[in-house]
Amino acid sequence: MTLPWTLPAAVELRDVGPRDGLQVHPPLPLVDRARLVTALIDAGLREIEVGSFVSPRAVPAMAGTAELLALLGPIPGVTRTALVPNERGARDALAAGADALTVTISASERYSVANTKMTRADGLAQVERICTLAQAAGTPVDVVVSCAFGSPYEGDVAPAEVGRICAAARDAGAQRVTCADTTGMATPARIAAVVAEVGSEIGLHLHETRGTGLVNAWAGLTLGVTRFDCSLGGIGGSPFAVGAAGNVATEELVFLLEDCGVATGVELPALLRASRLLAELVGELPSAVARAGGRSAGA
Amino acid sequence: MTLPWTLPAAVELRDVGPRDGLQVHPPLPLVDRARLVTALIDAGLREIEVGSFVSPRAVPAMAGTAELLALLGPIPGVTRTALVPNERGARDALAAGADALTVTISASERYSVANTKMTRADGLAQVERICTLAQAAGTPVDVVVSCAFGSPYEGDVAPAEVGRICAAARDAGAQRVTCADTTGMATPARIAAVVAEVGSEIGLHLHETRGTGLVNAWAGLTLGVTRFDCSLGGIGGSPFAVGAAGNVATEELVFLLEDCGVATGVELPALLRASRLLAELVGELPSAVARAGGRSAGA
């Protein structure tokens, strides 16, 4: 039947599990991080945030991302993305051969200062310097705007303010912009307000802190958004609330989208094999589809 | 801002936690079941499925529902609903003063036979007899159609078939019909297909088996559905997968709807007090909002 919503024919999923997910777990051996990335590629994922270039003292689980990139090597058709917190991280990531960079700035001034010791203006200036470095290497940059749907400090963040930051990120040289619901405060109404301001040419990075990640992704989809971050097993978020606060699960998104006729490029049975590998490595997963499987037995 | 979806101004929520939720937990003292119902009423819920009149040997947690109704007494403005599996249960529920009855039939022939030892035709004939009993008592009946979005036996269930069963239930005397996603196989596309066939004058009873309960509720909402079952804490489903397969959490639904300007009549802070009581009684809850709270601190 024809659906009563206008949905895109296909979407681009970026699995951030090996970075946003694993960073809250005890460090895994590099070979296991590589197996996980490979399992995601085998399932059909074409962009994976494989790690970050942050201080290994601050985030031990992300130590060795340069070695991980070397272990994986370039993979035709696959983008191995790395998160970088600053210019030094960007130089390291580019030297290690990352195919794309993500850099975070915040829509919330207080969140920015509390978490990065930088004002938003300083953060944007840094984004510009990182974009200059990346451009010289021919590497695209995606600026992830945190707290785009609300801030734990200020509460509401005006969509016009989010729009201003997104435009500034593009002006600074970002090829892409992603709006992140860092603390799970978004609802479809908030998604609509930001998309109305920023346009549907954004990525959405959504958390399940309040169980609304998937419905927010759906809301974005019906408004024309075609890029979504997700995390194998739904891991991520706070290490103190595993199962509660992670990213939108890749399994849920693929199950939902494929059943609604939206192509993800991902095969659910192969994805569930990746889920089982992840569960062996980190323990029980928040993803309900990882537990229940797809609509029919075996998928 | 004006939202890009047409949403109803208000919805009717029926909390089925004291029945569909508690039935999978070890039996609670009647006084605790009553405290829970009272906490839900204090939060603003106006219809609550307080229990069922099934064999106490089959479902020990639901023993004493007649006594529970007596303990609660009639409550102005509140509908204390009871699930009945057969005419004997209906007689008992009516004698105990239940304000409304729910009766389940299945859209899946094999599920019907496996779970109730009755064909769908037998189930419908029984619904007709229960409606006759209820009508004599002036008590409304809601027929809940299980497997309306898929069956663990046959897989797909044709929406036209669901439409036929819903029409037959209405012909049998049901005041209301609710379509249930018994094993969590629905997606927005399946919701749209059933609503197109049956109309939006149905209730939706949705499970989180595959994490899609809330997004399915949202999909129904954008198609004009205004009645939703939900369960405090998201409890329910299989006792062997607590946290994975329960009903849509009342907390998530209220958080989402109220933030999108849809009136539920429920106050989230009071609802979270009910959540805390439930957690004291049954342990950790699946609901993410029960853990994280509302958008702002304290709500």
From TrEMBL, chains A, B:
One of its GO terms (molecular function) is lyase activity. It comes from the Bacteria. Residues 11-272 form the Pyruvate carboxyltransferase domain. SUPFAM superfamilies: Aldolase. Keywords: Lyase, Metal-binding. Belongs to the HMG-CoA lyase family. This is Hydroxymethylglutaryl-CoA lyase.
